Amino acid sequence: MMPEMKWTEQEEMMEDQYEVASQDQQHVMGTYARQPLHLVRGEGMYVYDADDIAYLDFTSGIAVSSLGHCHPALVNAVTTQANTLWHTSNLYLTTPQANLAAKLTEASGFDRVFFANSGAEANEAAIKLARRYSKKIYGAHKGEIITFTHAFHGRTIATVTATPQVKYQEGFGPLPSGFRYVEEFTLDAVKAAISAKTCAVMIEPIQGEGGVRPVPPEFLLALRQLCDMHGLLLIFDEVQTGAGRTGSWLAWQCVGVKPDILTMAKGLGGGLPIGAMMADAVIASVFTPGTHGSTFGGNPIAASAAVAVIDTIMAPGFLEQVRRRGQQLYGQLQDLALRFPDSVQEVRGMGLMWGVVLQGIDAGHVMNACREQGLLVLTAGGNTIRLLPPLIVSSTDIEKAISILGNVIKEAIG
After folding, report:
1. What residue spans define the domains of the chain?
2. Does a cis peptide bond (omega within 30 degrees of 0) precede residue 174?
3. Taking the model in full, what pTM does it have?
4. What is the pLDDT of residues 90-115, one digit of tens each?
5. Do residues 309 and 268 lie in contact, with contact meaning Cβ atoms separated by under 8 Å?
6. Topology given in CATH for the domain delimited by 73-313
7. 7-64+317-413 placed in CATH 3.90.1150.10
8. Contact 370, 336 (CB under 8 A)
9. Could you tell me if 358 and 186 are in contact, meaning their C-beta atoms sit under 8 angstroms apart?
């Protein structure tokens, strides 16, 4: 129980919160629809606001805080490295980056890795690698990439073009050429989109921002075979599904379909910015000195954090526990769907990445009401509530979250 504060202390706290909000409103560009919540610290599954009110975090900072908040292994790794070496540029070798490269490629099933700072940068690198490799092997005409409706690949000018959604592209034209869009997960649609210019197909195994839409494994397998038949590269965007989110280190390991190029970020650093683009040696060989680069990519502190994330997630029993908790979460969400059949249209996802598709009630309203009751959730495309708890979530945490979500849905339908 918090000690009773004097009125002057309460006034000071309110003034501090007002000052932070005022500074944000005056000086930060208005690209974010801020929720009325000023977070100041986190621990485990919880974050705390300026009044020290706790919120159960089922967002993980949009699938970033894979080990929750202030995990001891991450704190130790980052603190130790911060007292050793912060930055050198990629002109020199560093131990954390070399260690991370070895662990990451082994866990992921690839030969080489390029380090970036975000998922968008990793996807940008994948686009460049696919085009450069295809032009070298097949000729200068190769460079077009097929992507899918409801996809989200980032906000750089190239990755937003790879994202066939008007709300992300509007106002940023002229957009670069070199992308074709497919409406549905059907092989005939992909076949119709392939031309002499096509060099690659880019897809998320589960579309996160698009509404937590899992791609059927049989379609991914057929896509793999189609790419092999036409000499196309298959790119998996695992920015959100990677780092244990689906119950395996990567989603491709769940579905058994390996891409040629793979990207990840978000949960890899456990909260620090780092992205990775991976490929086998033959494809990676076209990236030679000067063809691509990143000043901050794979810096020692972020790399040290990522090593701690991999060591923790790949430890015996960890992913098995993620799968168990994922099944529990799915089961309890299905119970909600049975309880509210007119409001919960569908439950879809994998591991600890789930979408609750609502009908008749607004997902934004549900998100806000959950926050007011101490639970943080996200929305996604198609009036969907998105649940992305840290991988350390307990059975009790899930029960509490479902209880709050159920209460909110009940209140929303009256």
Report:
1. 7-64+317-413, 73-313
2. yes
3. 0.94
4. 999 999 999 999 999 999 999 999 99
5. yes
6. Aspartate Aminotransferase; domain 2 (3.40.640)
7. yes
8. no
9. no
